[in-house]
Amino acid sequence: MSETREAEQPVTAVSAGSAHHRRTWGDLPTVLRRGIVLVALLGAWQLSTLFMTGAQAQLMRGPLEVGEAIVDGFARGDLVDATLTTLRILLLSMAIGIVVAALLTTFAMWSKLGDDILNLLTAMINPLPAIALLPLAMIWIGLNTTALVVIIANAVIWPLAINVSTGFRTVNPTLLAVGRNIGLSGWRLVRGVYLPAALPHIVSGIKTGWAFGWRTIIAAELVFGVAGEGGGLGYFINYARFFNRTEDMFAGIVTIMIIGIAFDLLFSLLERKTVIKWGMKTA
Prior knowledge:
Blueprint: H1 2-19, H2 30-50, H3 55-59, H4 63-76, H5 78-110, H6 112-125, H7 134-140, H8 145-169, H9 173-181, H10 187-197, H11 199-223, H12 233-242, H13 246-276
């Protein structure tokens, strides 16, 4: 009996040690980890402004000054208008891009001709920067919002189509066989089997398309200033440059970053509520 107790003691000690293991950075909640990183970056940014003198000090603004500029911009309404203008054009363009990408990928699944068309267009247009087509769009359509919508939709279509097509091609053959055995075909097979099975790729494609579209619209507004009757965030930044309002330039840039973080959280929530919750992807 005594030998048994002695043999159990080391195991108990090891178990106690593992139960009180040292917490690491990865054990902290995600929000807390990223919050600490954000505070550190803001602190480094603010600290760097204290050591600038002369012309550098005139051209640089710290996070406190930029925060005041953002509050003033929203209070005046011009930063609100610029943000809403950019988001309105972007969301409309994304909606068009999603519909076109869905039609192309569905046609590609139905016929070999559609597959050839999708592969050829993707190979030709996807590597081409969407902003490079803006001068042509301005000549053909005019200096208006429609030109922006066409260019942004083009930027969204191809990364989304690539991801959705990949998702369709990697659907489990067993699921397809089951779907066909219960009488599904054509659009019903796409809706009942392909779309649910390819959902992780679809969400990833929308996320990638959003990133492509977001960069393109900001660049277009910044360089060409085409946002219809109103000006978007890119136009807001460029307008501030003309009047040497450095704090407003930073305010526009930080607003773009904040919107990027907000959309990233939105896509993460969408993944948690769908593909992660359904066991199609690990957290």
